[in-house]
């Protein structure tokens, strides 16, 4: 579990594309996994094999580490459903370690399970902040509400305006300077994770739960 408060702007050192997935069938496009090697002195300090680190909002498992670098496996499914498939050596990435029990929840509850990707469609600079418009997949629109929470490339943000096909966010100077959202351009993809609480509420209502007491029984 993460909070969406990016600890460090890291860098992709190497990308190794692995063999075809055993599930690939004849005639299908090859399902290739990848091995990412990333540099991040802050998150790599004290890291152990099996630890989780969010990379642009995607929870990955550390399989190797040395110095200020660590390596993580990325399944073909993850490459298809997130923007990690577009990473190359030199790409900058948002990094965050999992929250600890008793720590401050500075953002909101983030699982590191990307629900889909959007595209930056507009950037409107201001004197103290910048407004960014992001396209929104139709399947996620019902979970995004004005003044609600959303995770964009692993960054916990507040929705300014929400529509059926897009939403806007306001970025303060700190976010622009310390995350990839300061360097993303119009047309660039971003990973989106909606508020997990909204999905659980939807599931409960679909199951016919109307009395809150039924949830805790």
Automatic annotation (TrEMBL):
GO terms in the biological process aspect are: riboflavin biosynthetic process
Please, which domain of life does this record's source organism belong to?
A: Bacteria
PROSITE patterns associated with the record? LUMAZINE_BIND (PS51177)
User: Where do the Lumazine-binding domain residues begin and end?
Assistant: 1-108, 109-205
Q: What class of enzyme is it?
A: transferase
Q: In which pathway does it act?
A: Cofactor biosynthesis; riboflavin biosynthesis; riboflavin from 2-hydroxy-3-oxobutyl phosphate and 5-amino-6-(D-ribitylamino)uracil: step 2/2
Which EC number applies?
Answer: 2.5.1.9
Q: Where are the Lumazine-binding repeats?
A: 1-108, 109-205
Gene Ontology terms for molecular function: riboflavin synthase activity
Q: Which UniProt keywords apply?
A: Repeat, Riboflavin biosynthesis, Transferase
The reaction(s) annotated as catalysed by this protein in its Swiss-Prot or TrEMBL entry are: 2 6,7-dimethyl-8-(1-D-ribityl)lumazine + H(+) = 5-amino-6-(D-ribitylamino)uracil + riboflavin
**Function in brief:** Catalyzes the dismutation of two molecules of 6,7-dimethyl-8-ribityllumazine, resulting in the formation of riboflavin and 5-amino-6-(D-ribitylamino)uracil.
> Subunit structure, per the record?
Homotrimer.
Annotated protein name in UniProt: Riboflavin synthase
Which organism was this protein described from?
Answer: Streptomyces kasugaensis
């Amino acid at each position: 579990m993460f909070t969406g408060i990016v600890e460090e702007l890291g860098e992709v050192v190497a990308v190794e594309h692995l063999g075809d997935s055993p599930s690939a069938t004849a005639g299908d496009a090859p399902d290739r996994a990848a091995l990412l090697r990333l540099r991040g002195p802050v998150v790599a300090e004290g890291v152990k094999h099996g630890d989780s680190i969010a990379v642009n909002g995607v929870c990955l498992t550390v399989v190797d580490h040395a110095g200020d670098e660590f390596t993580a496996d990325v399944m073909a499914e993850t490459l298809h459903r997130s923007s990690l498939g577009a990473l190359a050596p030199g790409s900058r990435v948002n990094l965050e370690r999992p929250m600890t029990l008793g720590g401050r929840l500075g953002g909101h509850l983030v699982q590191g399970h990307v629900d889909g990707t959007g595209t930056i469609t507009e950037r409107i600079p201001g004197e103290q902040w910048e407004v960014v418009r992001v396209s929104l997949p139709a399947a996620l629109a019902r979970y995004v509400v004005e003044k609600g929470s959303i995770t964009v490339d692993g960054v916990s943000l507040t929705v300014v305006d929400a529509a059926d096909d897009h939403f806007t966010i306001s970025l303060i100077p700190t976010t622009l300077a310390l995350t990839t959202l300061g360097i993303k351009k119009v047309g660039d993809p971003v990973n989106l994770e909606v508020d997990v609480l909204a999905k659980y509420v939807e599931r409960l209502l679909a199951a016919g739960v109307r009395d809150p007491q039924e949830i805790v029984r």
